């Protein structure tokens, strides 16, 4: 019995240690102190789970806010049944199962919030970093927190960080995943989670839920950077770009696609059947890997999104909202959401001098992101500067 208890204790401590360290292998006295502090917090957490349901908001003070819709998240239960009227149509019957499921429940627009942090928008926030993630990708969140996504104040400008999540799509491990996520949020306090399952088609739900949440709590946030959890971002370059664009009304900038055609090949991840979209081209939209937008525009996008039916591809859906507002997103060469160059084998894709000049580069695994971050912030000497503000 004694051996069993000791073994269980060692396993528990090992799990906590691995979870804390994530995938980063950071050494030094500060990390040792941090690990010791987190172990104490872990013990306290498992004894008494804190109540974070209390919500506090501050009135915007910078004069930029429009009237917020509500003061709290007002969805407390999920009461959504399938729209069975669609079952009798021939077009619906011909669709693949995943699209049938999407259409049956497309009218279900909002779900209860599980983890909430309205305090992230208190005071004057210049830049709110918002990252789409899923429960199992803790290592990606951890490396972002320790590198470019670190909360800080730069030149008097407050930068805050949030991750957007749904619930686990792994039914067998759902309870375990949720418990670990609760602990992660207890440590970092940067998780927004809603009660819908994290799937590819539900990325649009994540978009509408964030826009509603932002409109509810964040009337005094100046700008938003929104992206995926596998991007490299230079916050210094972001702030430089925003400063140069401070007089631009309704700013929405990124790696913009013009006259993109809906993909009709069923084998493709982004396949869209004509029943869902029968036009030749999508409206201009920014690649979802990373883009910047004005806080006031985000509130207008929320109101506009309420007038449109949901679409399976989230970045295209935002383009549809911009089209309704008669706004065209700004294409900028420092947003690389499809890699630095088209040739994936090119050495330029691993060149730190180019990363140093970019705002966002997409598709880096955690170890690659960490290594590139270290290179960019080392004593790097670059003979060629591609130019941060070039629109090429």
TrEMBL record:
It is a single-pass type II membrane protein. Pathway: Protein modification; protein glycosylation. Its EC number is 2.4.1.-. Residues 1-20 form the signal peptide. One of its GO terms (biological process) is keratan sulfate proteoglycan biosynthetic process. One of its GO terms (molecular function) is UDP-glycosyltransferase activity. Keywords: Glycoprotein, Glycosyltransferase, Golgi apparatus, Membrane, Signal, Signal-anchor, Transferase, Transmembrane, Transmembrane helix. It comes from the Eukaryota. It is found in: Golgi apparatus membrane. The keyword Glycoprotein applies. One of its GO terms (cellular component) is Golgi membrane. PANTHER family: BETA-1,3-N-ACETYLGLUCOSAMINYLTRANSFERASE, UDP-GLCNAC:BETAGAL BETA-1,3-N-ACETYLGLUCOSAMINYLTRANSFERASE 7. This is Hexosyltransferase.
């Amino acid at each position: 019995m004694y051996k069993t208890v000791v073994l269980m204790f060692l396993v528990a401590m090992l799990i906590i240690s691995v979870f804390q360290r994530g995938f980063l292998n950071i050494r030094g006295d500060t990390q040792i102190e941090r690990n010791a502090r987190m172990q104490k917090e872990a013990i306290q957490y498992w004894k008494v789970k804190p109540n974070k349901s209390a919500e506090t908001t501050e009135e915007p003070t910078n004069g930029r806010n429009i009237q917020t819709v509500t003061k709290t998240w007002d969805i407390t239960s999920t009461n959504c049944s399938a729209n069975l009227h669609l079952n009798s149509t021939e077009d619906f019957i011909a669709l693949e199962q995943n699209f049938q499921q999407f259409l049956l429940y497309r009218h279900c627009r909002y779900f209860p919030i599980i983890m909430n942090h309205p305090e992230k928008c208190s005071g004057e926030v210049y830049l709110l970093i918002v990252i789409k993630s899923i429960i199992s990708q803790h290592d990606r969140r951890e490396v972002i927190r320790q590198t470019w996504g670190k909360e800080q104040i730069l030149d008097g400008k407050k930068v805050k960080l949030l991750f957007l999540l749904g619930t686990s799509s792994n039914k067998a491990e759902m309870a375990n995943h949720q418990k670990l996520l609760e602990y992660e949020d207890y440590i970092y306090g940067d998780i927004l989670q809603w009660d819908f399952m994290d799937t590819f088609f539900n990325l649009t739900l994540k978009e509408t839920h964030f826009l509603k949440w932002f409109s509810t709590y964040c009337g005094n946030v100046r700008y938003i950077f929104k992206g995926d959890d596998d991007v490299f971002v230079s916050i210094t370059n972001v702030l430089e770009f925003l400063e140069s664009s401070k007089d631009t009304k309704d700013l929405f900038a990124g790696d913009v696609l013009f006259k993109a055609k809906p993909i009709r090949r069923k084998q493709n991840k982004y396949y869209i059947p004509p029943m869902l979209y029968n036009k030749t081209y999508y409206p201009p939209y920014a690649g979802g890997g990373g883009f910047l937008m004005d806080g006031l525009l985000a509130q207008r996008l929320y109101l506009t999104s309420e007038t449109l039916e949901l679409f399976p591809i989230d970045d295209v859906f935002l383009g549809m909202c911009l089209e309704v507002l008669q706004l065209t997103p700004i294409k900028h060469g420092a947003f690389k959401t499809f890699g630095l160059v088209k040739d994936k084998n090119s050495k330029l894709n691993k060149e730190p001098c180019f990363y140093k000049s970019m705002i966002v580069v997409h598709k880096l695994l955690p170890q690659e992101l960490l290594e590139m971050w270290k290179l960019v912030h080392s004593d790097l000497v670059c003979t060629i500067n591609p130019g941060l503000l070039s629109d090429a």
